[in-house]
């Protein structure tokens, strides 16, 4: 279950790093909100999906892709909540505390949702 190939790691690194670099450049060029939209690009999900394709075929490929997609949809929903909380908490508590509390909240909610979705 936790097996990740070197190819998968490289794909995640390249897609994720490229997305972060592009979002940073776009944000500097046209402003934060538009850069934020590009920062939400699901590069790591796409790399993971490509990695599933490299490692599996047939029905196993379909099942693994569905599992990965369900997890990604839950993760993206949690990310929306986290982004909203960063905005609210940063305005009230300052950016350091707001970011820290939001990321801790993201971690707690992500672990809980993962447990409920995939362990129960």
TrEMBL record:
Q: Does the keyword Membrane apply?
A: yes
Membrane-spanning residues = 33-52, 72-92, 98-118
State the InterPro entries in the record: DUF3147
List UniProt keywords, sorted A-Z: Membrane, Transmembrane, Transmembrane helix
- Domain of life the protein comes from: Bacteria
Q: What is this protein called?
A: DUF3147 family protein
């Amino acid at each position: 279950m936790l097996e990740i190939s070197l190819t998968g790691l490289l794909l995640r690194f390249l897609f994720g790093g490229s997305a972060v670099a592009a979002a940073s450049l776009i944000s500097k060029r046209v402003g934060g909100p538009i850069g934020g939209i590009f920062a939400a690009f699901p590069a790591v999900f796409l790399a993971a999906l490509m990695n599933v394709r490299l490692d599996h075929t047939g029905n196993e490929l379909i099942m693994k892709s569905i599992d990965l997609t369900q997890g990604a949809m839950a993760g993206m929903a949690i990310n929306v909540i986290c982004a909203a909380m960063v905005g609210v908490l940063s305005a009230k508590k300052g950016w350091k505390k707001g970011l820290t509390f939001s990321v801790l909240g993201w971690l707690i909610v992500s672990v809980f949702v993962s447990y409920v979705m995939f362990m129960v």
